[in-house]
Amino acid sequence: MKRLNRIIGSSLIAGLFLNSCAKHEILPYEVDKPESIIAQENIDAYSPLISYIDKNAHPNFKWGVALNMDDYLNKGVMYRLANRNFEEMVMGYEMKHASIVQADGTLNLSKLERVIKAAQENNMALFGHTLTWHSGQNATYLNSLIAPVKLPAGSDPGPGGINVPSESGYSMKMTNPSVVNAWEAQTAYDIAGIETNTEYILKIAAKGSKAGSIGIDLQATSNYTGDSFGSIALTTEYKEYELKLTTTAVRNRFIINFGQYVGTIFIDDVSLKKVGTNAEIIAGGNFESGISGWFGWGNNSTRSQSAEGEGYGGPGGTVIEKTPEEKKSILTQALETFIAGMMSVTKDYVKAWDVVNEPMSDWPDQYALKTGVGKAELAEDEFYWQDYLGKDYAVKAIQFARKYGNPDDILFINDYGLEGSGDKCKGLIAYVNYVESKGAKVDGIGTQMHINSTANKDQIVNMYKLLAATGKMIKVSELDIGLGDNIKTANANAEMYQQQADMYQFVIEKYFEIIPKAQQYGITLWSPFDSPDRENSYWRRGEPIGIWTESFVRKPAYQAVAEALQKQK
Questions:
Q1: Which of 50, 97, 20, 11 has the alpha carbon at shortest distance from 355?
Q2: Can you give the pTM of this predicted structure?
Q3: At what angle do helices 393-404 and 424-437 cross, to 10 degrees?
C-alpha cells in the first residue's frame, strides 16, 4: 500500500512538471454585449442637443432649459450641462415676486444681477419668468398694503371709520381659587392633524383680574408628553399674543396650565395653525357660540362662556377699511414698482418675458380668470392681483413691461393645461384678445405642457392648431413628460421609458410641423432631469420626467429629442 502511494505521488509530480513546461494557449471565448449596454452606448454617442438645431433654417428658435439659480451660479454639473446643450435658460423661482420683494417692499436684485453676468459670459440667453402670477408672491407684504388703518383710541373715526371697542362679544372665562402646581388646573381642547417635526403658530388674546402668568402646551394623551409654547404674562387689559413651537412628536390636545394663577382669566380669538397654511385647527376660537369642545379639571377651577361684552374686540380705537378703489390704486402702484425694478437690471440682456402667468380658471368656467375669492385656504405666497385690479390686471402688467423694458421685447401670457380636453386654450386666446382690445399688445402665448406619455395626441395637435391660428409667437414653455398614473422612477421599466421618448419626439415634431416658422419662439424643458423622491422635491416628486436621470445619465428621451430636432434641418 505504501509503495502504491509512492508510485502515484511520483506520477503526479511528473505530470505537473510536464504541464508547467507546456505552451500556454488562450481558448477562444466570446459573449454578446447586452442590448441594454448597446442601446445606452448609442444614446451616449449623440452630440449635445443644441448641435442638432439648424440655425440657418430656424434663426429665431430658442432651445431652452429651466434651472435653479444657485445651480448655475455655482458652476457645477448643471452649469456645464446647460451650457453644452441649451441656448436659453429660465429661472424656475428666483425671478418671481416672492424671491425679489422683501418684507418692507424693497427689491433685492443682487442675485439676479449675478446670474445675468454669468449668462452673458456664456452667451446664454435669459428668459424672464414671471412678472405677474397668483403664486410665488410676497403675499404678506401685499396684504399689509391694503390692510385696514387702525387709529388710536379716541380718534375721530371720520368718513368710513368704525369705532371698535376694546371689549365686545364673548370670551372664555376661567377661574382658579388658589395656587397649586401649574398642571393642577387645566383647560383643554382635543385636536387632530398635528404632525411631528412641524412648526405651529398660536395667536390668542387674553387678560386677567390681576397680573400673572399662564402656560400653553400641545400634548399627547397617550403618554402625556408635550411641546410648550411657553408662558404668557397677563395684564388687566386684553393683549394679543403670538407664539410658535416645533413639535417633537404627534400631539392631539391643546392645553392651558393656570394652576399658579389665582383669579379670573379671559381668553379670546384663539387661532392655532400650521405655519404656511391658513387652516384653523381649533374651531370656534372666538367663543361667540359658546365653549363647545373645551373642558378641564383640577383645584375646583371653572371654565365658561363669559358675559356678553367681556370678549376681545380689538385693540380699541378706530378701524378704517380701504375702499376697493383705494386697494386697486395701491396695488397697481406696487405692481408698477416691482416691474420697474425688475426691468432696471434686466432690460439690457433679457429680451422676452412671461409677463402674466396662469391667468385662466381650471373649473368650471375656463373662459374666466382664476380667483382667490371663496377659497378656504390660501398659501403664504398666494395673492390674486386680478381680485383687486380686475380683468385689466394683465393690461396693466403688459403696459408696465412696455414702459420700463425695451420697445421690441417679446411679451407672453403663459398657462398650463391648454392641451386638455376642455376650453382652457380657447379661454386663454379669448383673454389675449381682450387684453389687446384694451391697447396692450401681446406678442406670444406660452403653453406649459406638463404632460404624461399617455397624453391624448389629437388634443395636442388641436392645441397647436388653435395657437397657430392666433398669429402670435408660440412657445412650449415648461415641457416635461411623466409616465402617467403617478408612476415613480423605482417602478418604471424600459417600455415606459420608450413611450416617454416617443411622446417627447411627438410634441417637438408636431410643434415644428404645425406652428408656422415665423411664430416659432422655441421650446423649454422645465425639468431636464428626473425628479428626486425626497421631501424637498417641489415638482412632480419622484417622477422620471426628464431626458436625463438624476445621476445625469441620458435616457431614451434624449435620443428622441435629438432626432426630433435634427429632422428640422
A1: 97
A2: 0.73
A3: 60
